[in-house]
Design a protein that fits this description.
This protein has 306 residues and is mainly β. It is built from one helix and 21 strands. The strands form three sheets. Strands 1, 2, 3, 4, 5, 6, 7, 8, 9, 10, 11, 12, 13 and 14 form a 14-stranded antiparallel sheet that branches. The protein has a four-stranded antiparallel sheet with strand order 18-17-20-21, with no helix packed on it.
């Protein structure tokens, strides 16, 4: 009975996390959500921002972990109204986005070079994915001139920086600092935009990564993604022999540690990979998959539920 309740709870969690994109959620944060950005007019740079998991910080609150250029950022959303970020430098939490307050609301705790931050305007645009009008919140820096009465406010006061735009149901669609313009996203397993436009040859992968399978629990197939990093200093002696790549294996084990499937056991070049696992001939239960590439090894758990 306990096992049955455990599986039912997993089903409920999966439905909540991996359902179709919910256009009522302002800032959709969940493990695996990924945003694809491009910025620059000449030789534009393309890159991704991903939610890779969550963690509990010293303040006792749980934050989603963002991977941006290999840097970790920590954010959480409260009641679909406020987004906060955790600053590890001072161990304090700060308000990042306010979706509940009216336009022209300013929160002075988020300051930069004497400027405050807040909600400038709310726009409404037709979104082809949702096939309806959706709101877009625009957040920007503002200068408060207290020498005048009443104090004057100048929005967009930080030169050469575009405001941050958040489209309801998608997340950050434009950010003048890092993100540039969004051209695709994966939200709760659904894809918005065209991912094939990414020039993979120009993307340098910084580290190994084995992602959590999706969906999980699954029946009977699931997808497993992993990254093989680009060597920082390729050997000049490899030459054409570098085509052989790195020895990579991806095995599946049952709960007793018995190997039951070989998904990959070959040489691979640096890149991003995705493998489909079909468990149609296996009983329900907990399984493990292990990626080994050179000196790297990582194992994750998945649940087959019929």
């Amino acid at each position: 009975m306990k096992l049955r309740l455990f599986y039912l709870s997993l089903i409920f969690s999966t439905i909540c996390i991996f359902a179709q994109i919910d256009s009522t959620i302002w800032y959709p944060l969940a493990a695996g959500n990924t945003w694809f950005y491009r910025y620059g007019m000449m030789d534009p740079l393309e890159y991704t921002v991903s939610v890779i998991g969550d963690t509990i910080m010293p303040n006792g609150k749980t934050y989603w972990i963002f991977d941006e250029f290999g840097n970790k950022k920590y954010q959480r959303v409260e009641n679909n109204k406020y987004a906060y970020y955790y600053n590890r430098a001072d161990s304090l939490e700060y308000l990042l986005y306010d979706f509940a307050s009216p336009d022209k609301t300013i929160w002075p705790e988020n300051t930069f070079e004497g400027l405050d931050y807040g909600i400038d305007t709310t726009q409404y645009r037709y979104n082809s994915y949702f096939q309806k009008i959706v709101p877009i919140k625009i957040f920007d820096w503002v200068l408060i001139d207290s020498s005048s009465t009443p104090p004057d406010t100048i929005w967009g006061a930080l030169l050469d920086v575009w405001p941050t735009k958040i489209t309801k149901g998608i997340g950050v669609t434009n950010d003048g600092y890092d993100h540039g313009g969004l051209y695709a996203a994966i939200i709760n397993g659904d894809t918005i935009g065209t991912l094939t436009s990414v020039n993979e040859s120009n993307i340098k992968i910084a580290d190994y990564e084995l992602a959590q399978n999706f969906p999980n629990p699954f029946n009977p197939t699931t997808n497993i993604k992993f990254n093989i990093p680009t060597p920082p200093h390729p050997s000049p002696y490899q030459g054409e022999g570098d085509r052989e790549g790195l020895s990579v294996s991806l095995f599946v084990f049952d709960i007793l540690g018995k190997k039951i499937a070989t998904l990959i056991n070959e040489y691979k070049q640096p890149g991003k990979y995705e493998v489909k696992f079909n468990a149609s001939n296996l009983p329900s239960g907990v399984y493990f998959y292990r990626l080994t590439a050179g000196d790297f090894s990582d194992t994750k758990k998945m649940v087959l539920l019929r």
